[in-house]
Automatic annotation (TrEMBL):
<keyword id="KW-0677">Repeat</keyword>
<dbReference type="Pfam" id="PF00931">
    <property type="entry name" value="NB-ARC"/>
</dbReference>
<dbReference type="InterPro" id="IPR003593">
    <property type="entry name" value="AAA+_ATPase"/>
</dbReference>
<dbReference type="InterPro" id="IPR055414">
    <property type="entry name" value="LRR_R13L4/SHOC2-like"/>
</dbReference>
<protein>
    <recommendedName>
        <fullName>AAA+ ATPase domain-containing protein</fullName>
    </recommendedName>
</protein>
<dbReference type="GO" id="GO:0051707">
    <property type="term" value="P:response to other organism"/>
</dbReference>
<dbReference type="InterPro" id="IPR036390">
    <property type="entry name" value="WH_DNA-bd_sf"/>
</dbReference>
<dbReference type="InterPro" id="IPR032675">
    <property type="entry name" value="LRR_dom_sf"/>
</dbReference>
<dbReference type="InterPro" id="IPR058192">
    <property type="entry name" value="WHD_ROQ1-like"/>
</dbReference>
<dbReference type="InterPro" id="IPR003591">
    <property type="entry name" value="Leu-rich_rpt_typical-subtyp"/>
</dbReference>
<dbReference type="InterPro" id="IPR027417">
    <property type="entry name" value="P-loop_NTPase"/>
</dbReference>
<dbReference type="InterPro" id="IPR042197">
    <property type="entry name" value="Apaf_helical"/>
</dbReference>
<dbReference type="InterPro" id="IPR044974">
    <property type="entry name" value="Disease_R_plants"/>
</dbReference>
<dbReference type="GO" id="GO:0006952">
    <property type="term" value="P:defense response"/>
</dbReference>
<feature type="region of interest" description="Disordered">
    <location>
        <begin position="817"/>
        <end position="837"/>
    </location>
</feature>
<dbReference type="InterPro" id="IPR002182">
    <property type="entry name" value="NB-ARC"/>
</dbReference>
<dbReference type="Pfam" id="PF23598">
    <property type="entry name" value="LRR_14"/>
</dbReference>
Length: 1161
């Protein structure tokens, strides 16, 4: 997979069970190393159908991408922050069934940052039509050979079947019809069967199914389960596999029901009926396995849902409850709402798309009160009910009618302030509820049974009652109970408690003074309890404690008794900024595997730290008071990861070389360390070394002894002048970053690194040449060496046979003076420093794997060689800011070329025929360009930039560009006059951005929108688009640092103001491509459709203002005129074949009026 520089949406489609999700995960795992921000969202179709599904999906995406989104904008728009970061993202949306889901989660592909990837899986390609996709691939069935291989892996644990089973295996494979899921499940079914009779019996059953019918094949595996396994499988198919349920949570619920869940889940995983991904999330194939499970339940009674064992369909649940049709057959019910809904109008406003409310409107009309208000008495007949999920539903009436058989109640969003004492459950989940206290008094029927209690996000909860009688309670989750001031002392007496989570209880000031009664506690989470100043003095008596997280607390010391925690494996004290010392007895924690002290005030580490014989991970990043590291650290023989980033000490202890098992060492931004110790060569197991931002001038020769090292990052080591010749001995190195180093050359030995995959030499401004051995890097796929002093494109570059992405762009060779008083002699002197003209070596034609080539600003002169057509894999070609006079006619042979950048090629006069598959063509500021090839066959061209090509006379075939979305012709007076009559209303209707020479905007535009409304009141028509027009000029007598660096004017903004706010709630930078090189006025028109952030953010009463940025980057930029026009439904929908000349101007479509306006210029 190439890392292309444009945003791309790819669809994988095919029938259920064909392997779409598996393939998407494989691609995701392969690309993930190239993206710092990434997200894999499973089961989009199912989650979208929930009452608040869209908000859930957006929040998941927001959390995964770790975006700084203002709280009031969460759930509205996920794209703008990505743009603000100017960072590419990788997103997989699994099981999408409507194009609206893509729009809602990504807003508009045209505004996502370059390099982003969106991968979508779907059963229905047609459902995602509408021009949002770049490419689509049908996932085919497996052929016989691959089917046999997959089946064998699951049936025998090997690549192929034993000879005795070959014939039977082939028969089974043929009957499976090439469906990966069927092969996987049936193979797992046969894994523990080694008698030939068992195989023949299985084959007989398989032959009785319809060939290739997946559900019949899967049913064989289900039928082989015992009764408890079947029960748990059906529970999971109906209630627990939506992609967000954690394995641990499911086990807790099933244990509450009396099942041995650990063993059963292991069985279901071994039989491939469920999967565990991301370490702890449970997943079941939606289209096949889950559907089969639900069909089994539905077949229990096809006519009467009340006689089935499980209900999850909202229509059926409401029918049963409303009509009192519940029976003792029902074991589980699930129904949830985002909030109470009382009218169709409210329901419609709650969420867009195919939500639960919209489904129910058609079934029950507009009166939906019964959906979120239930009488408890309606549950009384359900005497076998075990599982009940009723999120955001209001139960009314006498709670004594609640079935005593219920083991699990999930009632998130519960409106009650306290619970009736009659309730009794094993597992109780009241997250996001309004409870202020649980129940009145000490007595509660739940005392004897309650095992798991979840009160997370109960922001009104102020206290915990006496829990001394709850001796079966194993887990208590109070995460983000922000109003909780203290815990009842009885919490310290819960002898069965295993897990206590108090994360985010920001007002909690103390824990129970006596916690010695917590005989079974294994996990104590105190993260961000920011007012908690101390731990109980007897915390050392928590002899079963394995994990203690106290990050972000106000702890200033640890109790002396902590040495007794001999089973403690994780101690995390990150961001405890008052903690200055650790007790000397810390060395007694002999089971400790992870110690995290990042951003603490610790001044020294006790020598006893060397006694932590099982410590695997030590985090000391940004402990700014730590002045030295004890030599005893060298005795941590089990240590695998060591983080020292941002420290003030001046040297690393030489004993560090004794850490023979160390795999990760990070000493980034330790600027006072001037040399790595020679002993570093002793780190025989080291895989990753991060020394970014350090100030040493050279590396020790011993670094060449790191034979296992795979990643070495020296980003920002600005004092680094040379690399030792032994550097090339790191034969396993796959990734090397030397950005911003001051090295003048690379050692010849670098050619020995035959496994090197990624080399980053960005901004190495003293690097003047590459070694002759550079061509030996046969595994090099990604090469970045922007802004170096290398002046020659060496023939050896053509020997990099695996190279996929090559970015060797340079910045401008000279800066224009920042004001008009700077003498011209400076500029002349700078120009004399420009590198000599270079040529593209013919050896580049050997780079058959190359997909992205960027050699901008190399002053390439003459003619590009014809051999360039041999770059059969090239997708993105950037040759901008060069001096070549001719492009080869063979350029048309680059069949898969999508993006071609030729801007500022001042000697270029003619653009020869180009590949018909181009998506973007940029020839802006080619000031000698006179003609361009016929573009009429470029059906995919979306972006055409010819701005400031002042000699260009025409754009042949412009009227045929049906996919065109951006057309920039600013400063092209000759060209514009020739083509303006061909810019039809059809062209303008699809254009998003347009620039032309001109000093006027349409008279029917308004300067600002003083009060926005989504509909035209008199005609009930909704908003469809906004067109913004601006006229700018740029004074060429003034200069700045951006004219040669930025491809666009970035100082004109559209702002949205709310009636009560003095600051804008949203700011959008207009897409004004092309920086004027003339004083003449330029007109830009920008259209924003209903799925772009600008329109999505607009609310009733908002004001839209166009303005120049407060501190513009471009000196001399003037916003001369501006205006806005709102396009409502039907304003721009008059057909292409209709002659609008006979209509009054006010009745013409918006695009026709714009076409008439352009013709008048």
């Amino acid at each position: 997979m190439s890392m292309l520089m444009e945003f791309k949406i790819v669809l994988l489609y095919g029938m259920g069970g064909i392997g779409k999700t598996t393939l998407a995960k494989a691609v995701y795992n392969k690309l993930v190393v190239h993206f710092r921000r990434r997200s894999f969202i499973p089961s989009v179709r199912e989650t979208w159908g929930q009452s608040d599904g869209e908000a859930i999906l957006k929040k998941t995406l927001h959390n995964d991408l770790r975006l700084s989104l203002p709280p009031n904008e969460i759930g509205k728009n996920i794209v703008r922050p990505v743009i603000d970061y100017e960072e590419k993202v990788l997103v997989v949306l699994d099981d999408v069934d409507h194009v609206q889901q893509i729009h809602a989660l990504t807003t508009d592909r045209n505004v996502l940052y370059s390099g982003s990837r969106l991968i979508i899986t779907s059963r229905d390609k047609l459902a995602l039509s509408g021009g949002v996709l770049n490419e689509s691939f049908e996932v085919p069935r497996l052929d016989i050979q691959k089917s046999l291989q997959l089946f064998s892996y699951h049936a025998f644990g090997r690549k192929g079947p034993p000879e005795a089973y070959m014939k039977l295996s082939k028969e089974i494979v043929e009957l499976a019809g090439g469906l990966p899921l069927a092969l996987e499940v049936f193979g797992s079914f046969l894994l523990d069967k080694r008698r030939m009779e068992e195989w023949n019996d299985a084959l007989k059953k398989l032959k009785q199914t319809c060939p290739g019918r997946l559900h019949d094949i899967l049913r064989i595996s289900y039928d082989a389960l015992d009764e408890k396994e079947k029960c748990i499988f059906l529970d999971m198919a109906c209630f627990f596999v939506n992609g967000s349920m954690k394995r641990e949570d499911v086990i807790d619920i099933l244990r509450g029901c009396g099942f041995n869940a650990e063993i059963t889940l292991t069985v279901l995983v071994s039989k491939s009926l469920i999967k565990i991904f991301d370490g702890d999330k449970i997943w079941m194939h939606d289209d096949s396995l889950r559907k089969m499970g639900r069909e089994i339940v539905e077949s229990e009674n096809l006519e009467d849902p009340g006689l089935r064992s499980r209900l999850w369909d909202p229509k059926e649940v409401i029918t049963v409850i409303r009509n009192n049709k519940g029976t003792r057959s029902i074991q589980g019910i699930a129904l949830e709402f985002a909030k109470k809904v009382t009218s169709c109008e409210d329901a419609g406003a709650q969420s867009r798309g195919s939500t639960l409310i919209e489904k129910l409107k058609g079934a029950f009309g507009c009166k939906l009160e019964l959906e979120s208000n239930w009488d408890v008495k309606s549950l009384k007949p359900l005497s076998s009910l075990r599982l009940l999920r009723i999120d955001n539903i209001e139960l009314q009436g006498n709670f004594t009618y609640m079935p005593t058989s219920i083991k699990w109640l999930q009632w998130r969003g519960c409106p009650l302030t306290n619970l009736p004492s009659e309730l009794c459950f094993n597992v109780l989940d009241l997250a996001n509820s309004k409870v202020t206290h649980l129940w009145n008094g000490r007595k509660s029927k739940m005392a004897e049974k309650l095992m798991f209690l979840n009160l997370s996000e109960c922001h009104h909860l102020t206290s915990i009652p006496d829990l001394s009688e709850h001796q079966n309670l194993e887990k208590l989750n109070l995460r983000n109970c922000r109003s909780l001031l203290k815990l009842h002392n009885s919490v310290g007496e819960l002898s069965s408690l295993v897990h206590l989570n108090l994360e985010g209880c920001v007002n909690l000031m103390e824990l129970p003074t006596d916690v010695s009664g917590l005989k079974c506690l294994e996990s104590l989470i105190l993260i961000n309890c920011s007012r908690l100043r101390e731990l109980p003095s007897d915390v050392g008596y928590l002899t079963t404690l394995r994990e203690l997280y106290a990050d972000g607390t106000a702890l200033d010391k640890l109790p002396d008794s902590i040495f007794r925690l001999d089973k403690l494996r994780i101690l995390s004290l990150v961001d405890c900024r008052l903690l200055k010392r650790l007790p000397e007895a810390i060395g007694c924690l002999t089971s400790l595997e992870k110690l995290a002290l990042t951003k603490t005030a610790v001044e020294e580490l006790p020598n006893s730290i060397g006694c932590l014989v099982n410590l695997k991970k030590l985090e000391l990043d940004f402990c700014e008071s730590l002045t030295e590291v004890p030599t005893s650290i060298g005795t941590l023989t089990a240590l695998e990861s060591l983080y020292f980033g941002g420290q003030v000490f001046t040297e690393l202890p030489s004993s560090i070389g004794s850490l023979s098992h160390l795999k990760v060492l990070s000493v980034h931004r330790c600027k006072r360390i001037s040399m790595l110790p020679d002993s570093i060569g002793g780190l025989a197991s080291l895989i990753m070394l991060n020394v970014e931002g350090m100030s040493f001038k050279e590396l020790p020769n011993q670094i060449g002894c790191l034979n296992m090292l795979e990643q070495l990052s020296m980003l920002g080591c600005e004092s680094l002048e040379r690399l030792p010749e032994s550097f090339g001995n790191m034969l396993n190195l796959t990734r090397l970053s030397l950005s911003r180093a001051t090295i003048t050359e690379l050692p010849e030995s670098i050619g020995m690194m035959e496994r090197l995959n990624t080399l980053i030499l960005e901004d190495c401004q003293q690097l003047k040449m590459l070694p002759a051995s550079f061509g030996n890097l046969k595994s090099l796929c990604y090469l970045t060496m922007t802004n170096t002093a290398v002046e020659e494109l060496r023939e050896e570059l053509g020997m990099l046979s695996s190279l996929k992405v090559c970015n060797m762009a340079k910045l401008s060779y000279s800066k224009k003076p920042t004001n008009s008083t700077v003498s011209t002699e400076v500029t002349t002197e700078k120009e004399q420093e420009m590198p000599k003209p270079v040529t593209v070596p013919k050896s580049f034609s050997h780079l058959s794997s190359l997909t992205d080539l960027n050699i901008q600003r190399w002053k390439i002169s003459g003619k590009i060689p014809d051999e360039l057509e041999q770059l059969k894999s090239i997708v993105t070609l950037k040759l901008a800011h060069n001096n070549m006079s001719h492009l080869p006619a063979s350029l048309r042979g680059l069949r898969i070329l999508k993006y071609l950048y030729l801007s500022h090629c001042k000697e270029l006069k003619v653009i020869p025929p180009l590949p018909s598959g181009l998506i973007k063509l940029d020839v802006s500021s080619c000031t000698r360009l006179e003609s361009i090839c016929d573009l009429s066959d470029m059906e995919y061209l979306e972006d055409l930039n010819v701005a400031f090509c002042i000699k260009l006379r025409d754009i042949p075939g412009l009227q045929c560009l049906k996919s065109l979305k951006r057309l920039f012709m600013g400063g092209c007076e000759l060209c514009f006059q020739a083509v303006k009559s061909r810019i039809t209303k059809g062209t303008l209707r699809h254009l998003r951005d347009l620039s032309v020479p001109g000093g006027e905007i349409p008279s029917w535009f308004v300067k600002e929108v003083p009060y926005f409304t989504r509909t035209k009141v008199t005609k009930h028509r909704s908003i469809k688009a906004v067109v913004i027009g601006v006229v700018i000029s740029l004074d060429q007598q003034l200069h700045d640092d951006y004219r040669d660096k930025l491809p666009a004017i970035v100082d004109i903004q559209a702002k949205i103001f709310r009636p009560t706010d003095s600051y804008p709630v949203y700011t959008n930078v207009l897409n004004l491509m092309g920086v004027p090189d003339t004083n003449e006025d330029q007109l830009y028109l920008c259209r924003y459709t209903e799925v772009t952030p600008l329109l999505l953010m607009l609310q009733e009463g908002d004001r839209v203002v166009i303005a120049l940025k407060d501190t513009p980057r471009f000196n001399g930029l003037t916003l001369k005129k501006f205006g806005v026009h709102l396009i409502y439904e039907q304003d721009d929908q008059i057909g292409e074949g209709v002659d609008e000349e006979w209509l009054d101007e006010s009745e013409r479509s918006t695009s026709k009026r714009l076409a008439d306006f352009l013709n008048s210029l």
